[in-house]
Write a structure and sequence with these properties.
single chain, about 130 residues, S-adenosylmethionine decarboxylase, 3 helices, about 45% strand, elongated
Amino acid sequence: MNALGKHLLIELEGCDPGKLNDLEFVRETLMAAARETGSTILGESFHRFSPQGVSGVVVIAESHLSIHTWPEHSYAAADVFTCGTRVEPRRGADYLVQQFQPRESSVTEYPRGLIPSPPAVQEDQAVGIPR
């Protein structure tokens, strides 16, 4: 089976609440993570909630990166979803872990868009004609 994309789910526990509530830090960190993957950035949208928390998404030609923060729990959930083989989603996930400096983190990768591999064409050995 071939996968059309890779979806990395990033759990960030025990982060600095100040960073998690800082819209500009969260935005710049997610944008930099997108650049780390080698993706083509198409757009972005971020929002700071009252009294706390930030959500944001960076739309890339290859799919997206997103984050949701809960400063009151020192926790953030992030996604790096990329399609194709040109980009490196793990580099973006590693960058997010490095920048948010959680006490604990995990990155779980899921293949997305599983499609069967095309059947191999067998040739008749004697004449080179496909069977």
